[in-house]
Amino acid sequence: MNLESPTVTVNKTAQDVFDFLTKVENFEQLMPESKQKFEKINDSRFLFQLKGMPELVLEQKDSTAPNKVVLGGASEKLPFTLTADIDDTEGGKSTTKLTFDGQFNAMMAMMIKNPIQNFINTLSENISKI
After folding, report:
1. What per-residue confidence (pLDDT) applies to 24?
2. Ramachandran region of residue 95, left (φ > 0), alpha (ψ -120 to 50) or beta?
3. Domain coordinates of the chain in residue numbers?
4. 115: preceding bond cis by omega (within 30 degrees)
5. Is residue 60 predicted with pLDDT exceeding 90?
6. Interior CA angle at 111 toward 4 and 78, to 5°?
7. How would you write the chain as a 3-class SS string?
8. Which CATH number applies to 2-31+61-127: 3.40.50.2300, 3.40.720.10, 3.30.530.20, 3.30.70.100?
9. pLDDT at res. 75
10. pLDDT, tens digit (0-9, with 9 covering 90-100), for 30-54
C-alpha cells in the first residue's frame, strides 16, 4: 500500500526542515489533535498513540541530508516506512512530501487506508507550519 500526502511549501530551507525532522522529539508538534500519547524513547525512536488506535513505535531508518528522512515501524508485525522528501525552492523556502509505504494484507489495508491517509495529510499540513 502506497499513500502520498500533498506537497506542501515550508517557509524554511530544505536543511532546516531536514534538521527539524531528524530530531524525533519534534514529531510531537506535528501530531494530530487526536494524539493521546507521545514519548521519545531515544534519539532515533519515539512512541505515539492516536485516539482509538494502538501505540506505534517509529524509528529513523535512514536519512540523506538535506533531502530525505525515512522513518519506519519498529515492529516486524507492521512493516512500513514513512519518507519525507524535501526540496529547496526559491527564497529560502522548500517543499516537502510524505510517502507511506506498507506491506499489509488486503483486509488490513482496507481498514487502515483512510486513517493513515488522514494522518500523513495532517503531518504534512503541520510541517508547512514549522
Report:
1. 96
2. beta
3. 2-31+61-127
4. no
5. yes
6. 70
7. CEEECCCEEECCCHHHHHHHHCCHHHHHHHCCCCEEEEEEEECCEEEEEECCCCCEEEEEEEEECCCEEEEEECCCCCCEEEEEEEEECCCCCEEEEEEEEECCCHHHHHHHHHHHHHHHHHHHHHHCCC
8. 3.30.530.20
9. 83
10. 999 999 999 999 999 999 999 988 8
Cβ-Cβ contacts under 8 Å for 71 (sequence gap 6 or more) = 58, 59, 60, 61, 81, 82, 83
What number is the average pLDDT over the span 85-107? 96
Question: Taking 90 as the threshold, does the pLDDT of residue 78 lie above it?
Answer: no
pLDDT of residue 106: 93
Residue 127 is predicted with a pLDDT of 98
